[in-house]
Every structure is written in structure tokens, then in C-alpha cells.
Design goal:
Helices cover 40% and strands 14% of the residues. By secondary structure, it is α+β, with helices and mostly antiparallel strands. It folds into two domains: 65 residues, Orthogonal Bundle (Arc Repressor Mutant, subunit A); 194 residues, no CATH class.
Length: 287
């Protein structure tokens, strides 16, 4: 959480320090967006940035702010943004069928593509799903089966398009566990790129996780009582099928990496869990 001592200059430096871990400089508006200090006016942050630049605490080049230790090429940042925009335009021809699956309520794009730092030679397209209650494992079977059929599933694809559907949560379990709330998760939620929403589920997800404002107070949303309209759930044979598919798929997963969460209302695959490394690096670098 943010320190109780108000120091906007320190918070700007810490915001840049966090992004330095990902070798990412920030534009003016990205810096405002992700900053841990709540700025009342743009003039306020302009004055803070001017002072930090004058004292050579930070640098500015090509429209980006960054810490002195960060080394990057303008061309690399431009190419990653260009690649990200191209991929975002291209993926609809692969994912449009998911919009017709009634169990899928929301699809979000996370990871490097969501931050417009996508490297088409090595990065996967990470997908986050909000799914109807008691339909997670059925949905995963449909999603993975379809992607494998097209040979664009992360473990099968050799091309630039590689989908990694690694996170599914139930529509009635949107709130992030309290023990896992940190700046890493807050950034992932804020950066998420909404691809498909069946009707207010993205905003309900944000409403369930207002704790992120403790890390990024400039990320504002005005909430009504509810945005989505969940359907009444009546127990059917599909509930039984979902339980069977959960048992079947868990037993089919021969390789485990130790970080998976495989439950009835949440599925999360973490082949490479970078969160601890990122948090430890941030603790060392921040002011």
C-alpha cells in the first residue's frame, strides 16, 4: 500500500522504478495513470516532473520518462507498440467464436500485449476469463480444444500467434484474495485490455477489487450498485458435467509446475510465476 507520508516526487520515482523492472519507460499520461500519488491537477505533476528533471533524478527522451539506470532503444519501444496494435487487430478472427459461448461473460487480455510491449517473436497472448458459475471447466475444455484445433494454443503454435488462456474465474468469485493483493496484481488488473464483455462484468470485476486504488489512486471509476445482470442459476446436468470435466482435466495434466490453482471457481496456470521476483526487485529499487 502507499506510504502515509505524502511525497509526490518519491512516488513518481517509485512508479518509474517499478516499470524499470519490465524495461518500460512511461509517457506522461501513463505515468499519471500508474503513479502511487493522487494528483489533483495535471499542473501538479508537471511541476513535480520539472523538478525531478532539473535535479537529474529522472530522464526524458522521445516522449518517455524513465529512471537514469534504464537503458532502452526508441526503436524497440516503437516496434513493440506497433506489434501490439497489429496483434490486437488480428486476434478477433481467432477469438470471435468465444463471444457466442453463453458461459463466457468477459474476456480480458493481460501481460505484455496489454501493456503494448508485445514481442511477437517470444511473447504469448495471455487471456483472462470471467465465466458463469459452475461452467469453468466446461469453458476451459471448449477454449483449449478450439485453440488446439487451430494450432494457436501456446504449447502447439510455432507462429507469432500463441494464445495462453491461463486464468478463469467464476462470476460469483471476482474479488481477489486479500493475502494476494499487492502492487504486481494491481498493475495487472489496471493494465488489462477488455476484449469482450457480455454486459457489465468488467466493471463489476473492478468494483469487486477497489483495493487497487490503494496502489494507483489515479485509476478512477464511478460505480453504480451493479452493472452486470447475473442470471439465476438452476442446478442442471451441466453442473455435474462440469465437475466430471474438472476431475478429468486435472488428471490429464501430467506436468505440474507447482504454482497452479485448480479449483471449482478459479483456474490459474502459472508456468513462470514472476510476481515474487518482481516484488523483491521493486523493494530493492524503490526509494
Amino acid at each position: 500500500m502507499r506510504s502515509k507520508i505524502i511525497d509526490p516526487k518519491r512516488d513518481v520515482i517509485n512508479t518509474l522504478a517499478y516499470k524499470k523492472i519490465f524495461k518500460q519507460p512511461l509517457t506522461f499520461y501513463q505515468l499519471v495513470y500508474f503513479c502511487q500519488h493522487e494528483f489533483k491537477t495535471l499542473r501538479e505533476i508537471e511541476e513535480v516532473l520539472a523538478e525531478l528533471l532539473e535535479k537529474k533524478k529522472i530522464k526524458y527522451r522521445g516522449g518517455f520518462y524513465y529512471l537514469n539506470k534504464l537503458k532502452f532503444k526508441d526503436e524497440d519501444i516503437f516496434n513493440k507498440k506497433k506489434s501490439s496494435l497489429e496483434i490486437l487487430e488480428e486476434i478477433d478472427k481467432y477469438l470471435f467464436l468465444f463471444k457466442s459461448i453463453p458461459f463466457i461473460k468477459f474476456i480480458g487480455i493481460t501481460g505484455s500485449l496489454a501493456s503494448f510491449m508485445f514481442d511477437s517473436e517470444k511473447d504469448d497472448i495471455d487471456l483472462f476469463f470471467i465465466v458463469e458459475r459452475n461452467r469453468l471447466w466446461l469453458t476451459r475444455l471448449l477454449v483449449v480444444g478450439y485453440l488446439k484445433l487451430l494450432k494457436i494454443y501456446v504449447n502447439d503454435s510455432l507462429g507469432r500467434i500463441k494464445f495462453c488462456p491461463n486464468f478463469y474465474i467464476s462470476e460469483d468469485k471476482m474479488q481477489w484474495p486479500e493475502t494476494q493483493r499487492n502492487i504486481y496484481v494491481a498493475h495487472e488488473i489496471v493494465m488489462m485490455y477488455p476484449y469482450f464483455d457480455a454486459g457489465g462484468f468488467y466493471l463489476d470485476f473492478l468494483k469487486a477489487n477497489t483495493w487497487i486504488s490503494g496502489f494507483m489512486p489515479n485509476f478512477h471509476f464511478h460505480f453504480s450498485e451493479s452493472y452486470s445482470t447475473p442470471l439465476k442459476h438452476y442446478k442442471t446436468w451441466l453442473d455435474v458435467l462440469d465437475s466430471i470435466l474438472m476431475w478429468f482435466q486435472k488428471n490429464m495434466m501430467k506436468v505440474r509446475y507447482g504454482s497452479e490453482v485448480l479449483q471449482k471457481d478459479i483456474i490459474h496456470f502459472l508456468k513462470y510465476d514472476n510476481s515474487n521476483w518482481v516484488l523483491e526487485s521493486f523493494e530493492k529499487d524503490k526509494s
